[in-house]
Design a protein that fits this description.
Radius of gyration: 24 Å
Distance between the termini: 38 Å
Strand content: over 45%
Number of helices: 6
């Protein structure tokens, strides 16, 4: 089998970082506040580098027995959270803790995110090759992914949103945030966001995971945490590979994360290299595709208090490189003469954010500001730029500056919160977001009502992509939505219950449309799309058995004004999932089943097919031996045939066996 080119070597990655930082620093140099953001981010990266050196020194010290380990008492640390502190009105719509995640057969980040109610994770291939994250009937461009509360969503395209350098072993908590809750944190989210919180454990520990599976699949991960004086340091490294479950679906992935915390400071630096055969990912006419991506993420945040005010100051940076080969090198014998070469993209985002809260006798004031810069260099996307060096010939960038403020109130059983956000974009001018939450504590349940108005700016792909069947529109404007949600959460006897209904009315929706099937797809602000649905979940324990059930329903109503539209045809209409885990003696069993029904059609072998429904069943078995755990996991036990995207059949029965060590 063809072996893909490997993006390895410290020199190559350093060149990638230097080129990306030069691209990021050159954008909006005429804007004073933009230069300030660059300088702050630059200084932040230097601080992160120092912490990385400390982590590298501290990690080897992990290899020690309990008898030899020095007992160390860390100084008391006051953690001032950026999230709201007044309780129910500001709590996430759903939360998965690390303990709950242990009850599931999770292989990848995509598996983890898909556990949240209302989430649709459409994957191409396996092993986190590529997954499109969407919420409640929205598109993959309308949903944000946050890492420790920082918006790292890719400005090029939502296809790269899940390119985050972390492993499931590092996750402490996963939160589902509605648009109203995002605005309270100063983040604009059209459909909502998924926030992944990386573990923050001050204990000295070492976790290792080795696994192998069919189709030449293998994975190794290492997580180490170490306390050095006032510092709590974390290092994680992951490598995975596969020969692929069908031709041209092989992959190689590698990630490294370094994290440090010290009395209100949180510093993080992470990188990821991915290369994967993308068989028919974007086009069934030219199936022999390949993609290689590189990601660098850095952030520095500090929580501190001045007088009665509590502050969170964050600086962050994300650099993403993408090389797409329509005809995979070394895999395709001949390339058509019209093919001019591969697509190269280098997208960057970075910013500076400040959030402050001040407790009052009857509530809390919330205020903040953010400066965020997004840019791209490419040979396909952007405006022609003769100053660039090959392979880049085009570029574009934009600067966002936002202010937000609000008030949170709690009186007895009642709590409420209202937030307003104003944003100025260097390209689109002024826009705004509004949100209000109210919560009332009943004897058994919490009743919560929220309303919000939010918006989304086009991605660079929406604005500039040109293909054999697509023509983008550089004059696109933002799209907007109004969101209403009613939620009921509580506990009855042994049952933890949650029920949510929602409605989203979208206007000026960015959609790809065409008058007839013979015409090109055009990107336009023309479609009105409304989404109405419900999410229900129940969790309970009976004897040695833990049970979880959840159901999601979504109905989409779209007005395409007489044009054929692709924006609202494919969505997850029904999703019913059940899971049970139990332990007998030293064996731990996990069973799960999920039924998914997807609206829409796809074309394969020259014919149209309905996505329809599919039942997926998985199982797992674990056996602990002291600090070691042997496990076996099997997926799609019914060998169901299904597709998340029309051109990419998903694998049948797969299995993985592995060993976890915890010291």
């Amino acid at each position: 089998m063809y072996q893909p080119k490997q993006h390895t070597g410290a020199l190559r990655f350093r060149r990638f970082c230097r080129a990306g930082w030069a691209a990021f620093s050159s954008m909006h140099r005429e804007v004073t506040i933009g230069r300030l953001a660059v300088r702050v981010a630059d200084n932040s990266l230097c601080k992160v580098a120092v912490c990385c050196l400390l982590t590298a020194v501290g990690s080897p010290l992990m290899a020690q027995t309990d008898d030899d380990r020095e007992v160390r008492t860390l100084p008391e640390v006051e953690v001032l959270l950026a999230s709201d502190s007044l309780g129910s009105a500001s709590e996430p719509a759903a939360v998965l803790t690390a303990d709950e995640l242990q009850q599931h057969n999770i292989r990848t980040l995509a598996d983890l995110v898909a556990l949240l109610p209302g989430v649709d994770l459409r994957v191409r291939g396996v092993g986190d090759a590529q997954g499109d994250l969407s919420l409640r009937g929205g598109t993959f461009d309308q949903t944000l992914l946050l890492l420790n509360g920082i918006n790292l969503t890719d400005p090029q395209t939502g296809h790269h949103t899940m390119d985050i350098p972390l492993d499931i072993s590092m996750v402490q908590r996963v939160e589902l945030l509605t648009p109203a809750l995002c605005l309270a944190r100063g983040v604009v989210a059209f459909c909502g966001a998924v926030n992944i919180v990386v573990c923050d454990d001050y204990r000295d520990r070492l976790l290792a995971d080795l696994s192998i599976g069919i189709h030449g699949t293998a994975k190794a991960s290492l997580l180490a945490t170490k306390a050095l004086g006032d510092w709590a340091l974390t290092t994680a490294a992951i490598y995975s590979r596969s020969d692929g479950y069908m031709p041209n679906t092989d992959y190689r992935h590698g990630s490294l994360l370094l994290q440090a915390r010290r009395q209100g400071w949180h510093l993080q630096l992470s990188g990821q290299l991915k290369g994967f055969g993308s068989q028919a990912f974007y086009s069934t006419a030219y199936p022999d595709q390949y993609e290689a991506t590189r990601t660098l993420v850095a952030s520095v945040s500090n929580h501190f208090q001045l007088s009665a005010f509590r502050f969170q100051l964050s600086s962050y940076f994300r650099l993403h490189g993408d090389r797409f080969e329509l005809f995979r090198e070394g895999y395709v014998d001949s390339v058509p003469s019209w093919y001019s070469g591969h697509n190269h993209h280098l997208s960057s985002l970075g910013g500076l954010r400040l959030r402050a809260t001040r407790p009052l006798p009857v509530g809390e004031l919330i205020a903040g500001a953010e400066v965020r810069r997004e840019g791209i260099r490419s040979n396909v996307l952007g405006l022609p730029d003769s100053t660039l060096k090959p392979p880049y010939t085009r570029a574009d960038s934009r600067l966002n500056a936002s202010l937000f403020g609000g008030y949170a109130l709690r009186r007895g059983r009642f709590s409420a919160q209202a937030v307003a956000l104003g944003l100025h974009n260097s390209r689109y001018g002024f826009d705004y977001g509004l949100a209000a939450n109210a919560d009332y504590q009943l004897p058994t349940f919490n009743l919560q009502l929220s309303a919000s108005r939010t918006f989304r700016q086009p991605t660079f792909t929406d604005l500039y992509y040109q293909g054999p069947s697509q023509q983008a529109n550089p004059d696109l404007g933002p799209e907007a939505s109004t969101n209403l949600e009613l939620a009921l959460r509580g506990k009855v006897s042994i049952f933890n219950l949650q029920f949510t209904i929602y409605h989203r009315a979208g206007v000026d929706i960015i959609g790809w449309v065409r008058p007839t099937e013979e015409d090109l797809w055009l990107s336009m602000n023309h479609t009105a799309v409304d989404a109405t649905g419900l999410d229900a979940a129940a969790r309970f324990q009976f004897s040695i058995f833990n049970f979880q059930f959840n159901y999601s329903f979504c109905h989409i109503a779209a007005d395409s004004r007489g044009l054929l539209s692709s924006s609202a045809l494919d969505h997850l209409r029904h999703r019913l999932a059940a899971r049970m885990d139990f332990a007998i003696s030293s064996f731990h069993f996990k069973l799960g089943a999920a039924y998914r029904y997807r609206e829409g059609q796809y074309v394969a072998d020259g014919q149209r097919h309905d996505y329809g429904g599919v039942l997926l069943v998985d199982a797992g078995l674990e056996r602990a031996f002291g600090s070691a755990t042997l496990y076996l996991q099997a997926y799609n036990l019914l060998n169901a045939s299904y597709r998340d995207y029309g051109g990419v059949p998903q694998p049948g029965i797969t299995a993985t066996a592995g060993l976890r060590l915890g010291l």
